[in-house]
Write a structure and sequence with these properties.
1 helix; alpha+beta; five-stranded antiparallel sheet; 2 domains; single chain; 5 strands; SH3 type barrels; 115 residues
Amino acid sequence: MDSTTDEDRELPELIRHMMITRLLANKQALEKTEDYKPQHDEKLQAKKENIIKIGHFVYLDKRTFLNENEKLADKWEGPYLVTKLFDNGAVDVIRNGRTIRANRNCLKPFKSNGR
């Protein structure tokens, strides 16, 4: 007499089906990622090139809110003059007569009322 039930026989088939479905889903996700990557890189490169240039004024992000209410404190300080751009995303700005280096992600373009 055989002690295996129908459920015991269907379990390996169900597991095999789930593994195949998972592999197909991973393959499709990778294909979509590869399709979208050139568009994403193009948008990112255009954004980096157009926003900050030498001679422009920018705001610098204040990351620390020591002894201040974070919701009420200013989140940006400046404007500061951009003096140098680096390929790795670093930017030199003049702040209080001294040159400091900041990451491009910590800067926001300054727009005067005249523009």
